[in-house]
Amino acid sequence: MPEKFPVEKLSATQQLKYKMYQLISGQLVTRRDILTAGAAGATGIALDRFFAMSGGKSAAGAGVGSQAWPEPVIANAQKLKGEFKTLGDYVYLAPEKLGGGTHAVDFATGQTLAWIAYWNYGDSCPISHHLAAYPSPDPHKGFEFVNSTQGGSNVMIYGLPTTIQERGLLEKWGQGNHIYRVQYDGSQMVLKEDISATTGIGLGVHITVYPDAKGFAAADGQKDIAAFFDRAGANEKTEVLSAFRADWIAAQKDGPLNENWSKGGTLRISRLVKAKETGRYAYEGATGNKIDWEMVPMAEDLVSTGQIPGADPKALTGLDAVVHHPGNIYSALIIRMLSTAVIIDRRTFEPVACLHMPEGSDDNLKITKVHGTPDTWEVKFDDIKCVGHEAGFSPDGKIFTMMNNIQQNNMAVFDTSHADPKEWRRFTFVKDPNWVGQFPSPFHLCFSMDGSKMFVSVLSPKPANSGVCVVDTKTWRIIKKFENVGPDCQTMSVSYDGKYVFQIYSGFQRLTSGVYIFRQDNLEFVGRQPNFGGHHDCVIIPTKLEHLRNSRCTTL
Amino acid sequence: MLKVDHLSKKFSADRSVEAVSDVSLEVEQGQFLAVVGRSGSGKSTLLGMIGGINKPTSGTILINSINQWALNDDRHSDFRNQTIGFVFQFASLLPTLRAIDNVALPALIGGSLSYKEAYARAHTLLNHVGLSERFDSFPGQLSGGEQRRVAIARALINSPSVILADEPTADLDQETEEEILNLLLEIHKAFNLTMVVVTHSGSIAERADKVLRMNKGLVESVEVSRSETGAPIGTALKLSANDSEPAPPVSAVETIFQTSNEPSAEEKIRLGEGVERLIGRYVLWLIPILLVAWGINAAVATYERTVLDAKENQRIELEDLAMKGLRADVKNVTDGPGKGYTVTLYLNNTIGPDKPIYVMAPAVRGFVQVGNSWQEVAMKPANSNNPKVLKVTGNQTYDYIIEPDVTGYAQLLPYYMHVRITNDMIVSPSDQPKTDLIERNDSYYVYLKPHGLDDAKILQKMKFPGKPPVWIPMPPH
After folding, report:
1. What are the angstrom distances between the C-alpha of B373 and each of A533, B133, B376, B380, B450?
2. Which of A32, A55, A106, A155 is the most buried (most CB within 10 A)?
3. What domain range is B462 assigned to?
4. Tell me: domain A91-550, CATH 2.130.10.10, correct?
């Protein structure tokens, strides 16, 4: 549009004024321009409709396959940059419990890296329960983990109107307690070994890798058995380094059931031996179960009311887990019915100390070897003031802590800096005024990478949401609480770069599930990630050996 | 050009006051008629009737042979707008419009010219009345004489055939009066306009072609008092037309328009010189309006956010109350009465007795697994007098009777029935809730030992540390 006025001769300010005037008075874009453009558009639409109505291709449709029109835009999804914020170059593993498998999630991309379902290998009732992973310098290229499963009657406790038993799926291959060794080969997960079949020891609960990554331990509170395994090489099978069974001999065997534990008794630890004929142990599947289903949280109460069926509930100790001291010499057998940790010297695989958690009880009990064939040790308890649950060592190995549940509902804290476990002493308790009665109760724990904080999941009964609290490890006071995180907060993980805490919540198997993420340093909430399945664990694959100090090795 | 025949105008209800009485006159094209007389002699009334403002009581007025009073209202208005130019006793300019706007306005209202043409002509006319530098001024910025000049330019905008001026110099000093008078005469001559001027001024009358002297509504005399040579041309005007020659019959304004080399008024407006005033008068006062609008919007948004936050917080608090503050589960199951079982549910207020939780109409139903599905069975409160709204202040129990009379039930545990109990509750912190209520739906799972079954038979397939329990709870897992 030619200028009538020599605008170029004006000063910049005057030109701006002139343009403003033109803009305000509509001279830059006139109504005529708009009408012209609108008329052109309307004509185009009309033509398009006309062609469509007359049976021909519309102007838009005519472009398909025609050189007259541009080809569709091709977007390479791998090259597109979205809004996803990476949480670091880590991969975490989450067992899906009733989902029957485990999947790996890539934090860098937000994708599931790979997954495995044990149904596909002939396990007719795989309840993928707990796991631990060996370090891998680049998990995207490969890693290895060990995954415990349950099965058998455990599927009966979730209120499922199932006919799985009638269909024969809980027989030999559905009894559970498989220990699967799985590798990710850079493209998919590969089942390498059913260690329970190899060794004859089937355990369905906690798995923890040794601090030197040369093997792992597994335990199961239904059987009261804990076993130490080596790490099999590429074409080797896993071997048992040593295995123990725990039994409770009540002081008042014939008394009321609820006094079977509270009135004290003897904890007997015996080394399991292989059958000479087979070279294997005889604890596959449901063999050796004292109770018919797992020691779920607060199930200790049901044992003492006689409402859990099983072969020998009165002998139950609840040996449900093993955690390892980061010094790589000692491991602790976690015994829930007694709120006790029996310390094993892994150099000799002999018990050397017995830490007792309840407030008001002696903290380090004498353990005595009473037999040599098989090796048997005993610990005398005057009473049992409360049951226990999960436990762990701090990454520097100077602290051991374990939950006292139901009756006391606190966390006993031990100084474990002494070289001799017999000198490990309980020096404080973590308490919260809300931890009264059965619920809410401390449930699982882990430590920040620098060890300055302890993160504790706090269980509330369904349908309430559980939460997380943060404990300062200098004062052992709770400094922050995340409430209403999600139902059934389970075992936690920390990212090894010191940034994030990942609290997986499982939703009691069939409800909400996901991962709640907050920062290790300033404890600020970061976000949530969706996640399939009713998880019992969340393990970030270590990329260095020292990461095991903060992985499923030292804590549960 | 102008012919008035026996024109009369009477006022008052009975028309007893005759302001103008039987006036007749003729004015030729280009003649200047001065109407003089004492106040109240009927001069202005006569002018008003000629100008189409006052309707005559009798008589006719023809301008260009048209009797305007015979036209309908619309055409009469058009005629008046296009044919007659008025100059009143006072300038009567619109104070909020610039001089050029005032001049252009009659053309814009009448639609005789386009916007561009109207402003161009207005600019030219203002130039010719000596206000070329003041077209942009508002009336308040002009002197009385300048306002009169604007009024004269306004009268000319539609190229009228006749100019009617009523005391056009009434309130002006002598010098200014002379200027305006000269201007009118110049225009009269330059445009060959017919001009009728009502005046007390003798100097004006002296320059007229004709002088109509009125007294008490009657024409006292008609005199031809103006010489053919006319008065000297005023110095304020620079007319291009030769005053000694008769003007062409066509509009002189058009002639002037054709010969003008001045930039049009619209072009001058586009210089951007008015932007500051535009900003000052419109944009600047838009800012507080926009600020107020923004403030209102922000306040509304804040209010909405507050309301939404409050609702969300209320929901969270209610959910906490219902899910954490209130615990509920099966406490016990016992045999009886009859073939039924007594199911004891507990509701436990964990917040404290001082903050009761109200549970409305807990709907408790029982189901037994048959095959892969749940079959509902009879379940009712043990006490039919239970209140509809339960006030829970501590750990309280409520009994229900379930009668699982089902054959072929599934046996997940040997012999035991797999039972689901649902408990749908409306929970509130208030006994008369309005919006502060939330629904909680629980499912509890238990195994029930059937009646009449020998325990020994059960123990053959399952082991218990004592006798088989009546019920086995599912752990909260």
Report:
1. 22, 98, 10, 21, 19
2. A155
3. 326-473
4. yes
